[in-house]
Design a protein that fits this description.
By secondary structure, the chain is of the alpha/beta class. The strands form 2 sheets. Strands 1, 2, 3, 4, 5, 6, 9, 10, 11 and 12 form a 10-stranded mixed β-sheet that branches. A two-stranded antiparallel ribbon has the order 7-8. 20% of the residues lie in helices and 27% in strands. Strand 3, helix 2 (51-56) and strand 4 (72-76) form a beta-alpha-beta unit.
């Protein structure tokens, strides 16, 4: 039997991918895709991103207007490698949250003093508990969270079964780079061998991009 996974906080994974599934090098999508991402930020309460993405790019996780100043912005790191130099997210808007393991809280607390709030997470399947991060965002008022990558965070979030939906923009491009990150990269299959999805909506735009929305269907017997 296949059932829809549910939780109090709705978690939406969002990404733009090439036709071969790569999400890097960013940005992959067009200006239209960027505006869609900003719209989704406007309509959600929080964003969660891996620090690997922060190291590669300079994300602010802001929407289209001033309402973003009330959004929760959060990062998660198992390594404790959080870049500060020239990262706008630490300079503009409310201080973000940084989730990490208990052994790194004190070190990061000193490094990020006055720039971010550092919080400890328990272990989860294959790493830190992403569900714990989502729960904390929920305690702070979030009812919907955008999961903004990268590929390892996406993989573990799916593995830990905390994602409700995927919104993916399929772009008319091919990469073929075997070293390029995909939507979700991890050591083992997410299902047996696939994690099933249910198509909710799909639309084609003049840019050649396809905007698709899927609900994730978790199997009862999948660990």
């Amino acid at each position: 039997m296949i059932v829809n996974k549910r939780q109090d906080v709705r978690v939406i994974m969002i990404a733009a991918i090439t036709l071969c599934g790569r999400i890097s090098p960013a940005p992959v999508g067009s200006g239209l895709d960027r505006r869609f991402l900003e719209k989704m930020r406007d309509e959600s309460d929080a964003s969660l991103m891996g620090c690997g993405t922060l190291r590669r790019d300079n994300p602010e996780m802001r929407g289209s207007g001033e309402g973003w100043r009330h959004r929760l912005r959060a990062f998660i790191t198992a390594s404790g490698h959080v870049p500060l130099r020239e990262k706008a997210v630490f300079a503009r808007g409310p201080a973000p949250l940084v989730f990490t393991g208990p052994n790194l809280v004190d070190t990061l607390g000193v490094l990020l003093a006055g720039k971010a709030e550092v919080l400890a997470l328990p272990a989860g399947s294959g790493g830190l508990s992403i569900g714990g991060a989502i729960a904390e965002l929920g305690r702070r008022g979030a009812r919907s969270v955008l999961l903004e990558g990268g590929s390892l965070l996406n993989y573990h979030a799916l593995r830990q079964r905390v994602v409700d939906e995927i919104m993916v923009t399929i772009t008319p491009q091919l990469s073929g780079d075997e070293n390029g990150a995909t939507l979700a990269d991890g050591p083992t299959p997410l299902g047996a061998p696939f994690l099933p999805l249910g198509l909710v909506s799909c639309r084609q735009e003049a840019t050649g991009e396809i905007f698709a929305r899927y609900q994730i269907l978790y199997e009862d017997n999948h660990a």
